[in-house]
Write a structure and sequence with these properties.
273 residues; 45% helix; binds S-adenosylmethionine; 7 strands; seven-stranded mixed beta sheet; alpha/beta; 16% strand
Length: 273
């Protein structure tokens, strides 16, 4: 992002402030948002502890409303914008929130209480065709028909309300055992749907570009191909930006060893003309 001192930066996905702290370290002025109130609290504490006198402002908001949020911050243009998509390690590790098939929890998956519909609502409420489409489109799940079939038969007897129930059911429906857990794609699809992730991303990109000052950079880190495709096409086809990453930047082997979640991260950067 080539952070410059005393310039304004919007971190649209504060998380645990890892990136925000790096921007502050370089003298940048951080305006941060996150949809998750717990993430905001954590970020504020971390920033204040590391840099008690640093300039930073934060707001709980959905980045799909970026123009309005920037206006509330009093910003008309900024030197850089960061989107580090998906969930933080803290959210994934939180045993109450239902993101992980390794932790038994209510099937919730909402990144924020602002969202109304939980993963359990979708699993128990969508009809067979809708569930199948969800797993195919948002999970690219090859076994969606047999998984959907078993879900529909099971929920007739009793509702599916926990991550353990769903993960076991997918294991039963999918005979194939590969390196990754058979429920990975089903959980991904539900998470994307519950948090409206693809629509939020499509909504934020044009707002971000219009907020950048000439020469300002938009950096987007994504963790699955559905998101990466949206970013890649947007950067390629937008005449207001130069695409600085014809190929996405990925983590080095060393980084993957230190932080295994970086394995699937793809960073793309565009610069406003
Ligand atoms: C991968 S984490 C960010 C980690 C952060 N960059 C750090 O260094 O600690 C993604 C964050 O984005 C937030 N998030 C996801 N969707 C969002 C949305 N539509 N609007 C605002 N924040 C969102 C999540 O709550 C989560 O805290």
């Amino acid at each position: 992002m080539q952070v410059k001192p005393q310039q304004a930066y919007l971190d649209c996905t504060l998380g645990s402030a890892g990136h925000a702290l790096e921007i502050i370290k370089r003298g940048g002025l951080v305006y941060g948002l996150d949809i998750d109130p717990q993430a905001l609290k954590r970020s504020k504490e971390r920033i204040l502890k590391a840099y008690p006198n640093a300039f930073f402002k934060v707001k709980q908001a959905n980045f799909s409303q970026l123009s309005a949020v920037a206006q509330e911050f009093g910003l008309t243009t900024v030197a850089g914008i960061l989107l580090d998509l998906g969930l933080s390690s803290e959210q994934l590790a939180d045993s109450d929130r239902g993101f992980s098939f390794n932790l038994n929890a209510p099937l919730d998956m909402r990144a924020s209480p602002d969202y109304q519909v939980t993963a359990a609502d979708l699993i128990n409420g969508l009809n067979k065709g809708e569930l199948n489409e969800l797993f195919q489109k948002l999970g690219e799940e090859q076994h969606s028909l047999s998984i959907t079939d078993l879900i529909v038969r099971t929920r007739l007897i009793k509702p599916i309300t926990t991550t353990k129930q769903l993960a076991e059911l997918v294991m039963k429906a999918v005979k194939f055992r590969g390196k990754t857990h058979p429920a990975t794609k089903v959980f991904q699809a539900l998470r994307i749907a519950v948090n409206d992730e693809l629509n939020n991303l499509k909504a934020v990109l044009p707002q971000a570009v219009s907020l950048l000052k000439p020469g300002g950079r938009l950096a987007v880190i994504s963790f699955h191909s559905l998101e990466d495709r949206i970013i890649k096409l947007y950067f390629k086809n937008n005449v207001q930006v130069i695409n600085l990453t014809k190929k996405p930047i990925i983590a080095s082997e060393e980084e993957i060893k230190a932080n295994p979640r970086s394995r699937s991260a793809k960073l793309r950067v565009a610069q406003k003309i």
